[in-house]
Design goal:
The chain contains 9 helices and 12 strands. It has helices spanning about 20-25, 75, 90-110, 115-120, 145-155, 180-190, 210-215, 235-245, 285-300, and strands at about 10-15, 30-35, 45-50, 65, 85, 135-140, 160-165, 175-180, 190-195, 225-230, 250-255, 275. The protein has a 7-stranded parallel sheet. Strands 2-1-3-4-5 form a 5-stranded parallel sheet, with helices on one face. The model has no long low-confidence stretch (mean pLDDT about 95). The protein binds NADP nicotinamide-adenine-dinucleotide phosphate.
Length: about 325
Amino acid sequence: MNTPARGRILLSITGFNPQRWYDLLSKERDVVLEPAGAEDPSIDYAVVWKQQPGILSRLPNLKAIFSIGAGVDHIFADDQLPDVPIVRVVADNLTQYMCEYVCWRVLDHHRQGAYYRTQQANKVWRDAHQPPANEVSVGIMGFGELGRHAARALLALGFSVNGWSRGVRTMDGVSTFHGEDGLTPFLNATDILVILLPLTAATQGIVDHSVLARLRQDGPLGGPCLINAGRGRLHKETDILRALEERILKEASLDVFEREPLAPESPLWNHPRVFITPHAAAVSDPAHLAAPMLAQMDAFERGEPLGNLVDPEVGY
Ligand SMILES: NC(=O)c1ccc[n+]([C@@H]2O[C@H](COP(=O)([O-])OP(=O)(O)OC[C@H]3O[C@@H](n4cnc5c(N)ncnc54)[C@H](OP(=O)(O)O)[C@@H]3O)[C@@H](O)[C@H]2O)c1
């Protein structure tokens, strides 16, 4: 009996060097590195990050698209996508990185890191009032894989946790809200807002001045804080800066920006109450992600369904 040939992969990555992905995927399959492979009928799968628009629709026998990240907005930026399944990353390694980032930033705002860093720079020895964690509510906007995992860690640290999602989601110990109607009560009950939404047509620009103004203003931290580790185009940077100046926002931790890299002239860089990381909260590490991706292709070729599928109707 002949063993069926294993599907070939087109690797289309822009913005960083694809070599490690190429090396790891090539251990098991024939990989074509874009710009080679255009219109190649022997290609079954595309593994992509910000692919060139239009290239995927010209692969006549493409069977599935694999995102190398949890988010897929970079795929939907292409308005000529073929009608094939899109698989995104759901992986313990990535989830753990994001959980660490969220806990790190929540604890820094909670334990007044910005205040003490300023004091240290000025050699000032003065302690600040420290509220207990259970008096502080962390609201997670985007209560999916990453948000729910972070919620469990934050509960273990003793915080009160709120979650907001599109559909109804529940979790023991968490106050959950959903949809448009749930947004204001969710925000009103939140001291530290963590953004872990996908970027879609419905969520673009959602973190604006009106959202920030609805955060709990009389909470124990002396003002609400924002943490965005989802996507930069979920927020409006001018609104964040305005809210900081108006003091309706006390501090912000931003990992993602409307335009990346963040422009040198952005006032966010030097703002004393803003903490910046360069889209590094949860990096897709091919050493952990390539093998499960190849295993999914093997399973698919044995006739098993693909997992972690994206719904193109909602865009995530
Ligand atoms: N900064 C980084 O390094 C980094 C790394 C990885 C991922 N990310 C970002 O994190 C995002 C989340 O990843 P994930 O794996 O947790 O995604 P996920 O499992 O798909 O969860 C998304 C959550 O957002 C909710 N949501 C989507 N659209 C909504 C809307 N219009 N209104 C209200 N809630 C909405 C979903 O609601 P339902 O539960 O009702 O579906 C779900 O709870 C990714 O899309 C990516 O952009 C960033």
